[in-house]
Amino acid sequence: MQISTRNTDHQATLTLQGRFDFHTHRDFRTAYEQPLDDSKIKEIVIDLGGVEYLDSSALGMLLLLRERAESLGKTVSLAKMQGTVKQVLDVANFDKIFPMKA
Amino acid sequence: MPLHALKILIVDDTPANARLVETVVSRMGHATLIAENGQQALDLFEAHEPDLVLMDVMMPIMDGIAATKALRQRLQAAQRWVPILLLSALDDITDIVRGLEAGADDYVVKPVNIQLLKAKVQNFTHQIEMQEQILQHTAELEKWREQAQAQTELGSHIMDRLVSDRDTHAMVGQLNIPAEDFSGDLVCSAHTPDGILHLLLADATGHGLPAALTAIPIAHAFYRMTGKGFPITSIAKEMNQKLRQFLPPDRFVAVTLAAINVEDQTIEVWNGGNPSALLIDESGKLLKEWGSTHPPLGILPEANFSEHFEVVGYQDNCHLLICSDGLWEAEDQSGRRIDRDRVLQLLAATSKDTHLAALQAMIGHHLAGKPAQDDISCLLAWAPVEQRDLPRVDDQGTPHLQHSGEWNFAVCYWAEDLKYLDVVPPLLDLMCQIHALKPHKGSMFIILSELFNNALDHGLLGLDSSLKLSGDFVQYLQHREERLGQLNNGRISITLRLHNIDGQSVLDVTVADSGPGFDYSRYLDNEELLHQTDRPHGRGIGLVRKLCDHLRYAGNGNQVSARFLL
Which among B224, B225, B205 has a CA at the least distance from the CA of B215? Predict the structure, then answer.
C-alpha cells in the first residue's frame, strides 16, 4: 500500500492507495506518527478513495489511531470511501464512530 | 582474520604435506588437528568434531576413500553435514571420482596450490556459516511451530468447550468451516427459562487463539444471562462492557443476537457488524432482513451503546439464517462469490432437514478443495407456528424438595427504575439460590414475568391487550416502548413467600401496582376465558393459572396473588 501525507494548516490528510490490510500495519503506523506529534494538527483525515480492499485489521488500525488521536485532543475522520470499502465500513457502522467526509 | 574460526582436521601420511597445509590454514586463523591415516581420522573426528576435513587419498591402514565413505555414513546417520575436501594427485582422477562418489564435497590436486586451497577453505567457511545459520533458524522455527501447535490445541479446546456440553436444540442447526485449524467464529444457542430461543453468532477479529480468547467472555455472558432470562439487548450490552474492559482498541467482535419467541410468534434481532440476518419462508422467499445497525462489540463506551433492535412477527413456519461474512466473501477459483439468491434458491429446493447439508455441500463445491479465506459459519433456526399448552416443563430429573421454615422477600420498583431495569432475571436468580425452588425455575419465571409484565403493561402503562389480540405484537411493543419512556410515576411491588401448609411447601407470589386496576370480576365469572390458551390475548394469565394452585385478584384489580405448589 502507498501512503502520502499532505498538511494544510490544522489538518493532515493521509491518502491511502491499494490494499489496506494486516500487512499495512507498520506503514500506516509510521505515516500517522508525524501528524500525531505535530501540535498544530487538529484533524487527521484518512482518504480512502484509492483503497480497493480493507479488512477487519484495517478497521482495528483506524480505531487504534482514533484512540491515540483523541487522547491528544485531535479528531480522525474518514473520507472518499466507495464500493466494497464503503460496504465494509457500513456493516461495521463506522459512521457512528468516525466523522465521514465525501 | 576470518569471520569464523574453524576446527580443521588434516589427514595425510606424509608429515611434510600435512605441515604445509597446516601452515596455510593456521595463517587463515583456523585451528587444526592432524591424523596420519583414515582410521586415525575417524577416531579424531569422533573425539573433536571438526568443522572441515582435508583428506589425502593414498594412505596406509585406511585410505581416504574408505575414510570419506565411513565419515559420510556417520554424518548422515546424525543428520549433520561436515564438508570433506579431497587432496589428490592429478593422475589419480579415478580416485577423485570415487572420492566424490563416496561423499567428498570437492577436491584439490597435488601438489597443492596454496591460493587455490585458501580460496576453497574460504568458500567452505561461508557455507559452514550459512549452514549454521540455517540450522539455528530451523531450530527457532521448530520451537515456534511447537508453540503455535500448543496454542492451536488450546484455542481449539476452548472453542470446543464453549460450544459443546450444551443442549442441542431440534430447532437449530449450524455449520462451521474454519479458515485455519479451527474456527474463531462462535455459534451458540440456548433457551431462556420461559422457552424463548436465543441465538448467537460472533465473529472476532483474526483467527485461531486470539479469536478464541475473545469468545470466552462472549459465550459466558450468553449462556449465563440467557439461563437467567435476560433479554438479548441486555446480553449485548454486557458483552460490550466485558470486551471493552480487556480488549485493546483495535480488537472487536461482530455479534448477531436473536430471540425466537414461539409463544408470541415474534423474532428479535440485534446485529452489530455482521451480514444481515435473513428470515425466509418455506418456499425460500425472503420475508425480512436485519442489517447491521450497530458497530461491532468492544468499541463503543457504555454511554454510546445502543440497545435498539427490531422485532417482527411471523404468521407461518419460517427459518432464520444468520451467517458470518466468511460465507458471502468466500471466493471460488475465478473470484466469484456466493450470492444471496443462490442460497435462497437452495433453501427452496431442499427440505427442512437437509437445508444445512445442502448448504455445506454448496460451499464445498464453491471452494473446490481450497481452504476458506475466512471462517465460515451459518446458523439456521426453525421458527415454527405451533400451539402448546405449556412452553416448557421444569427439571424432571431433580427430585422435588420440601422446604421447612419460611423464606420471604419483598421489593418495590419505582417508575424511574422500571424504565431501564431487567426486573425478573435478578429476582429469579435470587429465588434459584433456594434449593427447593431451583427445580421450578421455568414455572417461576413464567409466573413472575407474566404477573410483572401485566402490572407494568396494563396496570401502569395502560396498554390495551386487544392490540395483541389483533396479532400485531410488533405494534404492541412499539406502544410499550413509547409509553415506558414517558412514565413518570407509579410503582410495582413484588412479594415472594415460601412457606408450608399442611406439610406442603408453597410459594406465594404477589404483585401489586399503583395503577387504576381493572374489573376482574369479569374474569372470575368466566372460567373459560381464563383457560383460553390458544389466543395471545390472556394466554399469559391462562398459563399462570395452569401452573398455579390458584390465582386471585384483590384491591381494585391492581393486586394479584398466585400460589404455586412445589
Answer: B205
Q: Flag whether A99 is in a domain.
A: no
Q: Boundaries of CATH 3.60.40.10 in chain B?
A: 166-383
What's the confidence (pLDDT) of residue B535? 39
The whole-number average pLDDT for the span B377-399 is 69
Joined together, the cell numbers standing for residue B207 give 483467527
Mean pLDDT, range B463-480, rounded to an integer: 74
Q: Which residues of B touch A97 (CB under 8 A)?
A: 295, 299-300
Cα of B508 vs its chain's centroid, Å: 42
How many Cα atoms are found within 13 Å in the side-chain-facing hemisphere of B88? 22
Q: What is the DSSP letter of B165?
A: S
In a domain, A63, yes or no: yes
Q: What's A26's domain CATH number? A: 3.30.750.24
Determine whether domain B166-383 maps to CATH 3.60.40.10: yes
CA distance linking residue B118 with residue B311, whole number of Å: 84
Mutating which of B214, B250, B276, B304 best tests the A interface, going by the most A Cβ atoms within 10 A?
B250
Q: Which of A91, A94, A98 to mutate to test the interface with B (most CBs of B within 10 A)?
A: A91
Domain count, chain A: 1
**Which residues of chain B are in CATH 3.30.565.10 domains?**
407-565
Q: What is the pLDDT of residues B49-74, one digit of tens each?
A: 999 999 998 888 999 999 999 999 99
Chain A environment of B254 (Cβ under 8 Å): 91-92
Q: How confident is the model at residue A44 (pLDDT cuts 50, 70, 90)?
A: very high
Number of helices and strands (H, E) in chain A?
Answer: 3, 5
Q: Is B81 within 8 Å of B138 (Cβ atoms)? A: no
CB atoms under 10 Å from CB of B254, counted, come to 26
Find out if CATH 3.30.565.10 is the number for domain B407-565.
yes
The angle at the Cα of B544, spanning B517 to B549, to the nearest 5 degrees, equals 105
Asked if A60's CB is within 8 angstroms of B252's CB, the reply is yes
pLDDT attached to residue B398: 55
Considering the domain boundaries, does residue A100 fall inside one? no
Give the separation between CA A53 and CA A19, rounded to whole angstroms. 5
Does domain B7-135 fall under CATH 3.40.50.2300? My reply is: yes
Domain that holds residue A10: 2-94
Q: Calculate helix-pair angle for B114-163, B15-27, nearest 10 degrees.
A: 60
A13's CB contacts (< 8 A; 6+ apart) are A5, A6, A7, A44, A45, A47, A79
Is residue B274 within 8 A of residue A91, CB to CB? The reply is yes
**Residue B1: its pLDDT value, please?**
42
Is A76 a domain residue?
A: yes
Shortest Cα–Cα distance, B254 to chain A (Å)? 8
Residues of chain B within CATH 3.40.50.2300 domain(s) are 7-135
Nearest CA distance, A82 vs chain B (angstrom): 17
Query: Exposure of B429 by Cβ count < 10 A (0-12 exposed, 13-18 middle, 19+ buried)?
Result: middle
Q: Which residues of A touch B (CB under 8 A)?
A: 56-57, 59-61, 63-64, 66-67, 90-94, 96-97
Q: Do A63 and B300 touch (CB under 8 A)?
A: no
> What is the C-alpha to C-alpha distance for residues B560 and B554, in angstroms, rounded to an integer?
6
Between CA B135 and CA B133 the distance in angstroms is: 5
Chains A & B: contacts with CB separation below 8 Å: 50
Confidence of residue B173 (pLDDT cuts 50, 70, 90): confident
User: What ipTM, to 2 d.p.?
Assistant: 0.90
